[in-house]
């Protein structure tokens, strides 16, 4: 027992150190500024909408559906590793103590999102429904209960079914969680309690099955690896993650872009850079996501200064991260064996960024039509992109050497 507690403690400390190491690159000054403006703009739009929202708006169903779906997504955080399939096998009879700590962390680490969603919906519930403050806040207690039960059920279901058909289990729990929250918001506590009891009975049945089965180490290890890989891919949008291997996709529907690179020896690097950007998921989807965020903000936010700040910050982030990603690769390429000009690849990256930042500008310009000074975000994106590329540090100075 003490050995397993020590194992969990060491792994948890290592995990938190790893997360903190990369999160300090994520939550930088410019991102914090963007978040402040986004939260402020969303809050303002939300408060203005509450002044005109109809009394017939289905607030109870909307809150129940959003919170219920989030509650059903309760993937366990076990911190298991590949060697555990061998080294922890002798301790299998005591592993439930290890999993108890894992599920406790899973509960507390995942509780914040459904709680924040529910609390953010309280002004809407106060406006549309006739619920008292006490009745609304009792819903928080049910959110806590539902989250705890969902975490336990998902772990036991994955354990007993070796990870098969988890989508079916999540759909069932999502439906029951949605109905529970809806009944609470309609002050039908008896039906809500009955549904909680059904979930507990479901969990009890799974627990009985778990006791007769060996631990599915392979499933939990793969689940943990996928969870950490998702975190590393997210962190890779903000800084370089050395051990991350990006996936490649041909994206044949973008082949026409290569026609923008004239055939010739002097354009070799341009062709390589264009293909690298379009076919590498990390690079391409980084541009897509940041462009989509700016476009959505330009489309729905009616506060010009907020749109300008977000457009500038994300244009800076897009240019800086793509420049670093395309120039700092340490992989060996055949073009390194040929005598090419030192700045040829940098010029190629600048050409690509100018093209795709222009596309980003046109998308934002289209989304801004109808907003005050709709052309300003487009100008900000173009100017900041050029300034960022010109004055930011050149990572190619630390390139591959041999």
Task: Describe what this molecule looks like in 3D.
The protein has 402 residues and is mainly α. It is built from 15 helices and no strands. It has helices at residues 2-26, 29-50, 59-72, 84-87, 95-120, 122-128, 133-161, 166-185, 189-210, 217-236, 268-279, 281-300, 304-327, 344-368, 376-391. The longest helix is centred in the middle third of the chain and has 29 residues, at 133-161. The radius of gyration is 26 Å and the shape is flat. Mean pLDDT is 86; it is low at 398-402.
Write a concise keyword list for the protein shown above.
single chain; 402 residues; mainly alpha; 15 helices; flat; disordered C terminus
Give a short overview.
It is built from 15 helices and no strands. By secondary structure, the protein is mostly helical. The two termini are 51 Å apart.
Percent range of helical residues:
over 70%
The best one-word shape is flat
- Termini gap: 51 Å
Secondary-structure-based class equals: mainly alpha
Radius of gyration: 26 Å
Characterize the biggest β-sheet: none
Mean pLDDT: 86
Blueprint of the fold:
Elements (H helix, E strand, L loop, with lengths): L1 H25 L2 H22 L8 H14 L11 H4 L7 H26 L1 H7 L4 H29 L4 H20 L3 H22 L6 H20 L31 H12 L1 H20 L3 H24 L16 H25 L7 H16 L11
Helix pairs in contact: 1-5, 2-13, 3-5, 3-8, 5-7, 7-8, 7-9, 8-9, 11-14, 12-13, 12-14, 13-14, 13-15, 14-15
């Amino acid at each position: 027992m003490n050995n397993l507690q020590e194992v969990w403690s060491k792994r948890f400390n290592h995990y938190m150190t790893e997360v903190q190491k990369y999160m300090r690159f994520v939550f930088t000054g410019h991102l914090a500024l963007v978040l402040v403006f986004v939260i402020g703009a969303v809050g303002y739009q939300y408060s203005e909408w509450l002044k005109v929202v109809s009394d017939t708006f289905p607030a109870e169903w909307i809150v129940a559906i959003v919170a219920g779906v989030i509650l059903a997504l309760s993937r366990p955080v076990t911190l298991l590793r590949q060697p555990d399939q061998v080294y922890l096998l002798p301790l299998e009879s005591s592993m439930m103590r290890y999993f108890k700590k894992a599920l406790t962390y899973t509960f507390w680490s995942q509780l914040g999102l459904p709680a924040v969603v529910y609390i953010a919906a309280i002004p809407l519930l106060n406006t549309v429904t006739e619920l008292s403050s006490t009745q609304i806040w009792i819903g928080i207690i049910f959110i806590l209960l539902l989250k705890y039960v969902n975490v336990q059920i998902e772990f036991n279901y994955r354990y007993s079914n070796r990870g098969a058909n988890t989508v079916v289990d999540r759909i069932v729990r999502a439906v029951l969680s949605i109905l529970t929250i809806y009944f609470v918001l309609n002050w039908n506590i008896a039906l809500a309690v009955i549904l909680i009891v059904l979930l507990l009975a479901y969990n009890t049945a799974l627990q009985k099955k778990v006791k007769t089965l060996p631990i599915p180490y392979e499933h939990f290890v793969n689940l943990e690896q996928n969870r950490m890989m998702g975190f590393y891919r997210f962190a890779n949008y903000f800084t370089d993650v050395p051990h991350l291997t990006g996936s490649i996709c041909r994206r044949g529907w973008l082949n026409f872009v290569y026609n923008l690179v004239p055939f010739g020896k002097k354009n070799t690097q341009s062709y390589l850079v264009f293909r690298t950007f379009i076919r590498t998921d990390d690079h391409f989807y980084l541009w897509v996501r940041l462009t989509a965020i700016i476009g959505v903000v330009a489309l729905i936010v009616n506060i010009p200064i907020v749109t300008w700040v977000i457009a500038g910050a994300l244009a800076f982030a897009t240019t800086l991260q793509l420049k670093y990603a395309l120039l700092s690769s340490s992989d060996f390429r055949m073009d390194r064996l040929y005598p090419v000009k030192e700045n040829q690849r940098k010029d190629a990256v600048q050409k690509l960024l100018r093209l795709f930042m222009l596309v980003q500008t046109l998308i934002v310009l289209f989304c801004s039509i109808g907003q005050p000074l709709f052309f300003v975000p487009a100008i900000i994106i173009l100017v900041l992109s050029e300034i960022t590329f010109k004055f930011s540090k050149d990572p190619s100075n630390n390139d591959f050497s041999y």
